[in-house]
Design goal:
membrane, Preprotein_translocase_YajC, 1 helix, transport, cell membrane, five-stranded antiparallel sheet, rod-shaped, SH3 type barrels, transmembrane, 5 strands, 2 domains, alpha+beta
Length: about 100
Protein backbone atom coordinates (compact mmCIF):
# COMPACT_ATOMS: atom_id res chain seq x y z
CA UNK A 1 0.00 0.00 0.00
CA UNK A 2 0.86 3.63 -0.26
CA UNK A 3 2.61 5.11 2.72
CA UNK A 4 3.56 8.67 3.33
CA UNK A 5 7.22 9.15 3.82
CA UNK A 6 8.27 10.91 6.93
CA UNK A 7 8.57 14.64 6.45
CA UNK A 8 5.90 14.94 3.74
CA UNK A 9 3.14 17.41 4.47
CA UNK A 10 -0.43 16.19 4.99
CA UNK A 11 -3.32 18.44 3.95
CA UNK A 12 -3.98 20.88 6.75
CA UNK A 13 -7.35 21.01 8.40
CA UNK A 14 -7.03 24.77 8.79
CA UNK A 15 -7.04 25.12 4.99
CA UNK A 16 -10.20 23.03 4.76
CA UNK A 17 -11.82 25.02 7.54
CA UNK A 18 -10.89 28.29 5.86
CA UNK A 19 -12.35 27.10 2.55
CA UNK A 20 -15.60 26.37 4.40
CA UNK A 21 -15.84 29.61 6.40
CA UNK A 22 -14.92 32.11 3.67
CA UNK A 23 -18.01 31.40 1.49
CA UNK A 24 -20.25 31.71 4.56
CA UNK A 25 -18.76 35.10 5.39
CA UNK A 26 -19.20 36.24 1.78
CA UNK A 27 -22.85 35.06 1.80
CA UNK A 28 -23.54 36.91 5.04
CA UNK A 29 -21.98 40.10 3.64
CA UNK A 30 -24.13 39.87 0.49
CA UNK A 31 -27.30 39.35 2.53
CA UNK A 32 -26.38 42.25 4.81
CA UNK A 33 -25.72 44.76 2.04
CA UNK A 34 -28.60 43.68 -0.23
CA UNK A 35 -31.34 42.91 2.29
CA UNK A 36 -30.72 43.90 5.89
CA UNK A 37 -29.07 47.32 5.50
CA UNK A 38 -31.63 48.78 3.02
CA UNK A 39 -34.49 47.57 5.23
CA UNK A 40 -32.95 49.26 8.28
CA UNK A 41 -32.55 52.53 6.32
CA UNK A 42 -36.18 52.37 5.16
CA UNK A 43 -37.39 51.72 8.72
CA UNK A 44 -35.28 54.60 10.05
CA UNK A 45 -36.71 57.08 7.50
CA UNK A 46 -40.25 55.92 8.35
CA UNK A 47 -39.62 56.41 12.08
CA UNK A 48 -38.20 59.88 11.41
CA UNK A 49 -41.29 60.78 9.35
CA UNK A 50 -43.66 59.56 12.09
CA UNK A 51 -41.74 61.49 14.76
CA UNK A 52 -41.77 64.69 12.68
CA UNK A 53 -45.57 64.78 12.24
CA UNK A 54 -47.36 67.77 13.72
CA UNK A 55 -50.91 69.02 14.13
CA UNK A 56 -52.29 70.32 10.84
CA UNK A 57 -50.23 68.00 8.64
CA UNK A 58 -52.14 66.34 5.81
CA UNK A 59 -51.47 62.61 5.76
CA UNK A 60 -52.55 59.37 4.11
CA UNK A 61 -53.14 56.21 6.14
CA UNK A 62 -52.06 52.74 5.11
CA UNK A 63 -55.67 52.09 4.09
CA UNK A 64 -55.66 55.10 1.77
CA UNK A 65 -57.72 57.48 3.91
CA UNK A 66 -56.74 61.15 3.54
CA UNK A 67 -57.02 63.46 6.52
CA UNK A 68 -55.58 66.29 8.58
CA UNK A 69 -54.09 65.71 12.02
CA UNK A 70 -56.14 67.34 14.80
CA UNK A 71 -54.65 65.72 17.91
CA UNK A 72 -51.66 63.49 18.61
CA UNK A 73 -50.29 61.43 21.45
CA UNK A 74 -47.37 59.00 21.46
CA UNK A 75 -49.38 56.25 19.75
CA UNK A 76 -52.79 57.73 18.81
CA UNK A 77 -53.66 60.24 16.07
CA UNK A 78 -57.05 61.92 15.58
CA UNK A 79 -57.72 62.86 11.95
CA UNK A 80 -60.25 65.24 10.49
CA UNK A 81 -61.53 63.59 7.31
CA UNK A 82 -64.01 66.28 6.34
CA UNK A 83 -65.53 69.26 8.17
CA UNK A 84 -67.46 67.06 10.61
CA UNK A 85 -65.87 63.61 10.77
CA UNK A 86 -63.05 62.80 13.19
CA UNK A 87 -61.39 59.39 13.17
CA UNK A 88 -58.88 57.91 15.60
CA UNK A 89 -55.96 55.86 14.28
CA UNK A 90 -52.79 54.30 15.59
CA UNK A 91 -49.77 56.41 14.73
CA UNK A 92 -48.22 53.40 12.98
CA UNK A 93 -51.18 53.35 10.54
CA UNK A 94 -49.91 56.51 8.84
CA UNK A 95 -48.38 55.78 5.46
CA UNK A 96 -46.98 59.16 4.46
CA UNK A 97 -47.39 62.91 4.66
CA UNK A 98 -48.96 64.66 1.70
CA UNK A 99 -46.83 67.55 0.48
CA UNK A 100 -48.83 70.43 -0.83
CA UNK A 101 -47.72 71.82 -4.21
CA UNK A 102 -46.28 75.30 -3.89
CA UNK A 103 -48.12 78.05 -5.74
Amino acid sequence: MFQLAEGTATPSTSGQLLSFIVPLIIMFAVFYFLLIRPQKKKQQTRNNMLNALQKGDKIVTIGGLHGTILEMTDDIVVLRVNDVTKLTFERSAISHRVSEPEK
